[in-house]
Amino acid sequence: MERKYGKVEKVYFLDNITDSSEVEEYIADYICNGQKKKQEIEKWGKEVLNIDLGKIRFAVYPMKENKAKEEVIVLKTSEEVKYKENKNKRFKSNLCFVIFYSSINRFNFIFEELVDDIMGNTDIYVNL
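Below the sequence we write its predicted structure tokens.
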């Protein structure tokens, strides 16, 4: 999947994951190679963005990395994952994006491009 800001480098298909804490553990252990500390992982759950575009729902984990190259990684779970949402509501999705960025302006740019790409290719992302 090509994008203006680069490529989705990796797509991970995850089985037997039903909770956002399991997604966060996977990100820490396999995507970040175990280099994240427990307090950083706990903070992610508070920063996750829950996006509902009607036909498609997904979560976004913003990951600030000064040394890492900017990239987007897709996580697709076999079951819908429960994410926390404001006012104690639940948000469920089987699609998640991890955006590595170097500054908040870069995150905003990458995020906007990602949403535009998803809206233009909804069928691809729904059937991923």
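Residues 1-6 have pLDDT under 50 and may be disordered.
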